[in-house]
């Protein structure tokens, strides 16, 4: 199941986020991280991104309560986000085929993910987010929120052949009611 919400962020909001985050990219950290190439900036690690963090949090909260709850049947669980990460894919960078998975066991205590969220900050031809199992290709459109289930049957990838940077914000929504521990 997928959801695409155009104009989740305005053109000006996208430009502001790109400008703020671009100044924080450390070129020496560019490379392969997780299952992708490129570079990331985590909002929570930078005090100067607090206003942008709040903007994205409030906007996402609005859409969770007014649209995504109904689209994905998120009734009941207390939903939170994992924090926001700006990610830049340079021309020719790749997001390798992977599925996000319900659990991220980065710490001793973790919560099940219920939704993966990608906010496109740039328009990019030939840099679609592709879900091969569903023969689904989602265009990279500035300001669009893309959501999908973080399960193994939603593997996806992206090849940035657009001739320019592809900038996105990524987060996951998780169920705060179910606490899991590593054993």
- The percentage helix is 10-25%
How many helical elements?
Answer: 2
> What sequence of helices (H) and strands (E) makes up the elements?
EHEEHEEEEEEEEEEE
CA-CA gap between termini: 32 Å
Name the structural class.
alpha+beta
Largest sheet: 8 strands, antiparallel
Radius of gyration: 16 Å
Name the poorly predicted regions. none
Gross morphology is globular
Q: What's the overall average pLDDT, rounded?
A: 90
The number of strands is 14
Beta-strand fraction estimate:
35-45%
Q: Would you kindly provide a written description of the structure presented here, covering whatever features stand out?
A:
By secondary structure, this protein is an alpha+beta fold. Helices cover 19% and strands 38% of the residues. It has two helices and 14 strands; from the N terminus they run E-H-E-E-H-E-E-E-E-E-E-E-E-E-E-E. Strands 1, 2, 3, 4, 5, 8, 11 and 13 form an eight-stranded antiparallel β-sheet that branches. It has a two-stranded antiparallel sheet with strand order 6-12. A hairpin with a 2-residue loop joins strand 2 and strand 3. The longest helix has 22 residues. The chain is globular and about 40 Å long.
Task: Summarize this structure briefly.
The protein is of the alpha+beta class. The protein has helices spanning 11-22, 50-71, and strands at residues 2-5, 31-33, 36-42, 79-81, 85-89, 94-98, 109-110, 113-120, 124-131, 136-140, 145-148, 156-159, 166-175, 180-181.
């Amino acid at each position: 199941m997928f959801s695409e919400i155009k104009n989740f962020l305005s053109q000006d909001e996208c430009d502001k986020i790109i400008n703020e985050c671009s100044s924080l990219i450390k070129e020496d950290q560019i490379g392969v991280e997780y299952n992708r190439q490129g570079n990331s900036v985590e909002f929570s690690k930078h005090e100067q991104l607090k206003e942008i963090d709040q903007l994205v949090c409030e906007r996402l909260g609005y859409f969770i309560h007014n649209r995504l709850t109904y689209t994905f049947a998120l009734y009941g669980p207390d939903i939170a986000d994992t924090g926001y990460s700006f990610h830049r894919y340079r021309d020719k960078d790749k997001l390798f085929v992977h599925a996000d998975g319900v659990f991220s066991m980065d710490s001793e205590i973790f919560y099940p993910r219920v939704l993966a969220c990608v906010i496109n900050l740039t328009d990019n031809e030939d840099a679609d987010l592709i879900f091969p199992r569903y023969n689904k290709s989602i265009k990279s459109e500035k300001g669009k929120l893309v959501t999908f289930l973080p399960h193994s049957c939603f593997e996806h990838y992206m090849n940035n052949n657009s001739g320019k940077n592809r900038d996105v914000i990524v987060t996951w929504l998780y169920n705060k009611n179910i606490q899991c521990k590593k054993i």
